[in-house]
Amino acid sequence: MNYIRHLNAVFQQFSMDSRLNPTHISLYIALFQFWNIYRFPEVFFINREEVMSMAKIGSKATYHRCLTGLNDWKYIRYMPSHNPYKGSQVKMLKFGTSSGTTTGTSSDRTPGTTSEQAVEQALVSNINSNKHTTNLNKRGLPKNEKEVLDFFKNQRWPAKEAKKFFNHYSSIGWMTNGKLEIIDWHATAENWMIRDGEIKTEKTKNELSQKRDNLKTVKNKDYGQPL
Fold it and tell me: Do both 89 and 14 map to the same domain?
């Protein structure tokens, strides 16, 4: 898979496509990164929370709108799953050759592109050989509960939440959607914090709304009317 030529071609396509906005591009790059992590399979599973975190998308509606747009405009093929225990799938449509596919074989390369080959060899060495090991060591799973406690403390979150997070994911084997292994526990922890914050905010709004409703009075109340 000649990902250099693929990215060059897809970025060129982006520059000519007026339908795209920065969020579409950010989402595509996030999907490309997961494709890279999984070593460029034909089809791969995605986890919404992890992709949204990597793409820096905070709204589920925006996420689904951009994902649908990339699918409709033939950048990817999106295969949603309606099973909560089975993740959706994505197929990255390939760019970079006259046939519309990139295989990375010598027959696909333009003669004389020595600089491109040198860069590609360096990237292959650094990414395919070392990057996945680095990801597993730094972004995979926490070594122990203390590491989780330290991370939550640095984010100014209580130790109680750190223990809840660690116990929850330890009990389900550090998987999401029942079968997808967590590849970046920091991102998963940040999503945990976001969800907890949203729940608390919504609860506070509901409580304030109830108080306002209970305090409503009518100035010209007719006390002759039955209760």
Answer: yes
CA angle 124, 15, 118 (to 5 degrees): 20
Confidence of residue 211 (pLDDT cuts 50, 70, 90): low
Number of domains making up the chain: 2
100 and 15 within one domain: yes
